Amino acid sequence: MSDEAKVIIIQDRIKMARNRIIAGGILFFLGAALATFAFVLLRGAVWVVGGIGVFLFVFGLILSLYYVNERSILLVQLKGRETKMMTCRNCGKPVPQGKYTVCPFCGSALIAPLASVEVVDEEASGAKKSSS
Ligand SMILES: [Zn+2]
User: Fold this and answer.
1) Do 31 and 95 reside in the same domain of the chain?
2) The model's pTM
3) From the CA of 118, how far away is ligand 1's center (Å)?
4) How would you write the pLDDT of the chain (132 residues) with one tens digit per residue?
5) Which of 60, 77, 92, 93 is most buried (most C-beta within 10 Å)?
6) Beta carbons within 8 Å of 8's beta carbon, 6+ residues apart
7) 74 Cα: distance to centroid of ligand 1 (angstroms)
């Protein structure tokens, strides 16, 4: 599997973890509200509702904490992969190091000491065209 594919998979899993943290947070507050409603306002008359509330509260809390941890692990993995990336000097996009001699995004040379002369020439002719 290529490095880019791995980075995309990790980014996908980070998004998924974030969604579950949010879902866990919603369950957490919903459960807390339900338990408060059942035990405080109804004074435990419908203890089943309160029980569900407590369950959702605990479940949501565990879910959130689990995916907060998962997300931080994934972020470290992503950072480890991104250090193997270099930034294109022309368009500024991340490019896997040592894999390309030409930027896959804009096509400019990544490692070419003499190419700068050509770039200057192109810019000069481009300026002439735009002025006419
Ligand atoms: Zn580029």
Assistant:
1) no
2) 0.57
3) 16
4) 677 788 889 999 999 999 999 999 999 999 999 999 888 888 777 788 889 999 999 999 999 999 999 999 999 888 877 656 778 888 988 887 777 888 889 998 886 444 444 444 545 555 555 544
5) 60
6) none
7) 27
